[in-house]
Design brief:
The complex is a heterotrimer of chains A (340), B (404) and C (334). Chain A has a single domain, classed as 3-Layer(aba) Sandwich (Rossmann fold). Helices cover 45% and strands 11% of the residues of chain A. In chain A, α1 packs parallel to α12, α2 runs parallel beside α9 and α4 crosses α12. Chain A starts with a helix and ends with a helix. By secondary structure, chain B is α/β, with parallel strands linked by helices. In chain B, a hairpin with a 2-residue loop joins β15 and β16. In chain B, α3 crosses α11 and α6 runs antiparallel to α7. The termini of chain B are far apart. Chain C has a seven-stranded mixed sheet with strand order 3-2-4-5-7-6-12, sandwiched between helices. Chain C is globular and about 60 Å long. Classes of the chains: A alpha/beta (340), B alpha/beta (404), C alpha/beta (334). Chains in contact: A-B, A-C, B-C.
Chain lengths: 340, 404, 334
């Protein structure tokens, strides 16, 4: 590995450390009773998507699924505003309208964060059409899980992307579980990238416990996509915890979890950095502490932030300047009000 | 080190009321950092690792593994430094913003020709009972008339009101039936008369169990409507009345109007009807239009009461034009221009016609022109007003027990 | 069997177990219905009792699952599909509205599609815009579908039992906020017949018509109102199709005032249908316009403060009723 490569790995480590700390603090927010609901889907175990995000260029767009916190952190989102959104607060990315599953920072190229499995996948096809027709050099990346790989919409989208040679990448984060169903119980052929090859796309699977491998593969797949050859990459990893915060994972053995959690891109990166002497223990501890401090501050910020005023619920149903929906109380007042 | 606080069992899910203490991971005396797991708690749904919410030292556990503990009760005492994070000032929940201001745009101008405000229940009731909502004060929302307002309004033996229609304001007199209502009689007066002239007949009909309604025809009485042709007059009446199945009674010119409302009728009774023959007393019409009531009374065969005279004269002043228009629709130079005989022949309801043998306005021999389906009664005596001369006999014609 | 206290979830589960025991053609399929026991625990233990052929964990493929159920129903099986959230119905609508609903009619009565599509909707968990909707009117707008929305524990059991004998497709909509609610289950005595509206509380001053979770919000409001001398009749319609509107008409004819309460958004919602029927049939008996008290015309926001404000509460129902009956305006009407 080159010195540049080592420096890059250190950067990956920092990003992945921040993702993990963020997710752990999401749990803290929940335990404090400050999260908006309990539908909090952690991406711990999937941090190597940092490699894909690093391979994206400014101007590239992406869609995410309900487990997208890590992707946003890796793309440069502000943890404070993310945490505020998870707490349903006014200064969250979506003004307290979206919550954990819909955090999205559009200034980073996001086209949405979806809680309908597979819902965001076809949008990248349309984004690819825009870029092709407007002669823009961008790529659009759909992030989704192995669960979504069983939805019909993926195949419609892949076919069109290949047919029209669009700058599109489908990135399947295979954490082995669609909610409680392991991939081998959801797919007769779990080699998902083969489906993409059959559709006429570049297709490959990478080991998600090695962020460098993920990054290299992403560079290749995105590079080809930018030149009109859409791609499909599977990041093989393991979902360390349950589907959502309140999930006992009764569908898998503890021994499997212990084994699965060994596929840890963060720990592997740390090991490599130490082995290559790119960083020492103290340096990495400092990164860890900085990440924790940053995410502690994000929680404190979210707890202290203001809840949105009730009347903001009518905002953004339609474009600014358009009349908002008539509130129920207004409607009732028109009927029952006196003095007319 | 700072102060010792109690650590409560957090609520781990919307439905959780208590939790079972699982594995305890920190011993008394051990230090921990924010985010480190202190213990596990099982709720009805899941097992949750409870992290430290701030750096500190565990002083003592107040619970043991496997113990069932209510949410928010103390489970440990911990010593923390400085200000606890859990005391971060929460401005959020404290200030639930006010609901949006509910300023309503008031309707600036009242709707022209708006009907009185009334609930649909009150409208239905008023229609059934022939109450004019226009004359009532509503006690409901925004002055709306409620069914209760109708109940409290003393039910008059006779009501009169205006009905607003596209053809103008139709004045209607309405007599309630005494006892169970057996039907509704609609009385249509003749040229130069008005609904008041039916008072005596109406009372007798009401006593026999009929509700009686009598409009002032356009050009007459208190009705304000420009209609002059019989069809237009019939349409105006139709618009001003509820869609009931009436027993129709038309006197003189009113018989012509009645013939145009035949599809509405259960039965039709004509008194000294116009439209059934050629002749009509042109001198009578001329005397009326000229305000020569002495002369007109002579032809009518009845004395016009003094108060009616005054009203009639005032009316001729203001409504002379419309009356002339109607008169010329009806007749010209002693000749009637209209015939209702074809309409009568086509009627599928009982039709009766009453003539006065010595009527000086419309001759009794028109009885001979009647189609065979019309029952004809020729009463002895003079005059053009059988309902004044023989109200009991006329009222009897409506009684189903009387032979038609 | 005597009446027992149990939960809505358990009542549903018991209905499934009894139906599957009695009728071998009944089978359950859906995401996480087997090993996981259902996202809301309704199918817990069924896999162990009936085996993998009758309790089928599916991939996440809603359109395919419902389509497969249509085929199974056409070939002698009686599938019960669990759709984890009613919001996912969007993915299934062709199979539901164009296939399941229309097959009997389109083919002149030659074939039926006796399937039950269980799903849950509603607010209360900060599950945000794509997991909190009340979409019953998507289905009531399609001829050929039966649509039921039980509120009580007893109805959860009985309506599901009847749905599993229905010759046509039944959309069975549960509420996520009701699963842990306790109530009395009497397997011998249903609250009412299939397609019958039930009076949950008698009253004289106004009629509150509602269904699903809002039944309890309306009953709570009625309790508040009674303390203020207003007597509200609360009717739970239970079945949106077939719909018993006679019970509503009789009630409103008596009270002269009607309020329809739904959690779903007001515009083009089922409240509009109920309101129209009452207005048409009770026109001459109404002292006031028929009121709709429904969800705001907005997607469901995640923030708990906003989410609570987006749907009717007992307080709002009571305030509005007091305004309607007593002309006492609530503070927000200033």
């Amino acid at each position: 590995m080159t010195a540049g490569g080592n420096k890059l790995l250190l950067e990956h480590y920092r990003t992945m450390r921040r993702i993990r700390s963020f997710e752990e603090r999401v749990n803290e927010l929940f335990v404090r009773g400050q999260s908006a609901g309990s539908m909090l889907h952690m991406s711990i175990g999937e941090e190597s998507i940092a490699g894909v995000c690093r391979a994206m260029e400014p101007g590239d767009s992406f869609t995410t699924h309900h487990r997208g916190h890590g992707i946003f952190i890796a793309r440069g989102a502000d943890p404070k505003r993310m945490m505020s959104e998870i707490a349903g607060k006014s200064d969250g990315y979506c003004s307290g309208k979206g919550g954990s599953m819909h955090i999205a920072d559009m200034t980073l190229g996001a086209l949405g964060a979806n809680a309908i499995v597979g819902g965001g996948i076809p949008h990248v096809v349309g984004a690819g059409l825009s870029y092709r027709n407007r002669r823009l050099p961008h790529v659009s990346v759909a992030f989704f899980g192995d669960g979504a790989a069983q939805q019909g919409i993926l195949y419609e989208a892949m076919n069109m992307a290949a047919l029209w040679k669009l700058p599109v990448v489908f990135c399947c984060i295979n954490n082995q579980y669609g909610m409680g169903t392991r991939i081998d119980r959801a797919a007769a052929n779990p080699n998902l990238h083969e489906r993409a090859i059959a559709c006429g796309l570049n297709g490959l699977t990478v080991d998600g416990s090695d962020v460098e491998e993920v990054h290299d593969a992403a560079e290749r797949i995105l590079g080809a996509a930018r030149n009109g050859m859409p791609g499909f990459m599977v990041i093989n990893c393991y979902r360390f915890y349950g589907h959502a915060r309140l999930d006992k994972s009764p569908y898998r053995e503890e021994s499997e979890e212990v084994e699965g959690r060994k596929r840890d891109a963060l720990a592997n990166a740390r090991k490599k950095l130490l082995a290559r002497a790119t960083a020492d223990d103290a340096m990495l501890m400092q990164i860890d502490d900085d990440a924790e401090a940053e995410m502690n501050a994000a929680v404190d910020h979210a707890v202290a932030a203001l809840s949105p005023p009730v009347d903001t619920m009518f905002r953004d149903v339609f474009a600014e300047g358009e009349p908002p929906p008539r509130p129920l109380r207004h409607h009732l007042s028109m009927i029952l009000g006196e003095g007319r | 080190m700072g102060r010792v606080i109690e650590m409560p069992l957090p609520r781990l899910g919307e439905t959780m009321e208590e939790g079972r203490i699982g594995m305890i991971l920190k011993k008394p005396g051990e230090a921990f950092r924010r985010g480190e797991t202190l213990l596990e708690v099982e709720s009805d749904k899941t097992t949750v690792e409870v992290p430290a919410l701030q750096d500190g030292v565990l002083v003592e556990w107040l619970v043991a593994s496997d113990q069932l503990v209510p949410v928010e009760s103390a489970i440990a005492r911990i010593e923390i430094e400085g200000e606890a994070v859990s005391e971060v000032k929460v401005q959020a929940a404290a200030a639930p913003a006010a609901a949006p201001a509910l300023r309503m745009e008031r309707t600036a101008a009242p709707v022209m020709g708006a009907r009185p405000r009334a609930s649909t229940a009150a409208r239905a009731e008023a229609r059934r009972r022939g109450i004019d909502l226009g004359g009532l004060q509503g006690s409901g929302r925004n002055g709306r008339i409620t069914r209760g307002d109708l109940a409290s309004a003393a039910r008059p033996a006779r009501a009169s009101y205006h009905a607003e229609t596209a053809s103008g304001r139709i004045f209607i007199r309405d007599w309630a039936a005494q006892g169970p209502e057996r039907g509704v009689v609609l009385l249509l007066h003749g040229l130069f008369a008005d609904s008041q002239g039916f008072t005596s007949l109406a009372r007798k009909l009401a006593a026999r169990g009929y509700r009686v309604m009598a409009p002032d025809l356009p050009g007459h009485g208190a009705t304000q409507s420009p209609a002059a042709a019989p069809e237009a007059i019939a349409d105006a009446i139709r618009a001003g009345l509820p869609p009931l199945r009436f027993h129709l009674l038309g006197h003189s010119f009113g018989a012509v109007v009645a013939a145009h409302l035949i599809d509405w009728a259960q039965s039709l009774t004509l008194l000294a009807p116009a439209g059934c023959g050629e002749e009509i007393n042109g001198a009578f019409v001329a005397a009326m239009l000229a305000g020569d009531l002495e002369r007109a009374s002579g032809f009518l065969g009845e004395e016009i009461p003094p108060d009616a005279r005054a009203g009639l004269l005032a009316h001729l002043d203001t409504h002379g034009g419309p009356l002339r228009a109607i008169s010329s629709e009806l007749a010209e130079g002693g000749r009637q221009r209209l015939s209702i005989l074809t309409r009568l022949a086509a009627a599928r309801i009982p039709v009766a016609a009453v003539f006065m043998r010595d009527d000086a306005v419309i001759p009794a021999h028109h009885a001979l022109n009647m189609p065979f389906n019309v029952a004809v009664h020729v009463l002895p005596g003079a005059g053009h007003l059988p309902h004044w001369r023989a109200p009991d006999l006329v009222a009897g014609l409506f009684d189903p027990r009387s032979a038609r | 069997m005597a009446a027992v206290e149990t939960t809505y979830r358990e009542a549903l589960r018991q209905a499934l177990i009894e139906a599957m025991t009695e009728d071998e053609t009944v089978f359950v399929m859906g995401e996480e219905v087997g090993r996981y026991g259902g996202a809301y625990g309704v199918t817990k233990g069924l896999l162990e009792m009936f085996g993998e052929n009758r309790v089928i964990d599916t991939p996440i493929a809603e359109a395919g699952i419902v389509g497969a159920a249509v085929g199974a129903a056409m070939t002698g099986s009686r599938p019960v599909v669990e759709l984890m959230y009613i919001d996912f119905a969007g993915l299934t609508m062709d199979q539901v509205a164009n296939q399941a609903a229309k097959s009997r009619y389109m083919f002149g009565g030659q074939i039926g599609v006796p399937m039950v599509l269980r799903m849950q909707g509603g607010t209360g968990r900060s599950a945000a815009a794509q997991h909190s909707q009340s979409l019953e009117s998507w289905f009531t707008h399609v001829p050929g579908l039966r649509v039921v929305m039980p509120a009580t524990v007893n109805d959860a059991y009985h309506l599901l039992r009847i749905a599993l004998k229905c010759p046509d497709p039944v959309i069975f909509i549960e509420h996520k906020g009701l699963y842990v609610r306790k109530g009395t289950l009497d397997t011998e005595r249903p609250d009412g017949a299939w397609g019958q509206s039930v009076i949950r509380r008698e009253g004289a001053d106004l009629t509150i018509v509602t269904y699903s979770r809002m039944v309890f919000e309306a009953l709570a409001a009625a309790e508040t109102l009674s303390a203020q001398g207003v007597s509200a009749e609360v009717i739970d319609i239970r079945c949106l199709n077939p719909l018993d509107d006679e019970t509503l008409i009789r009630s409103v004819t008596k009270t002269g005032r009607a309020m329809v309460v739904t959690e779903s958004v007001m515009t083009s919602g089922f409240a509009a249908e109920l309101s129209a029927r009452i207005s048409e049939r009770c026109f001459e008996h109404l002292e006031e316009p028929v009121l709709r008290v429904a969800g705001e015309d907005i997607p469901i926001p995640v923030s708990p403060a906003l989410e609570r404000g987006a749907v009717p509460s007992p307080q709002l129902i009571a305030e509005t009723a007091l305004w309607l009956v007593r002309r006492i305006a609530p503070s927000w009407a200033a």
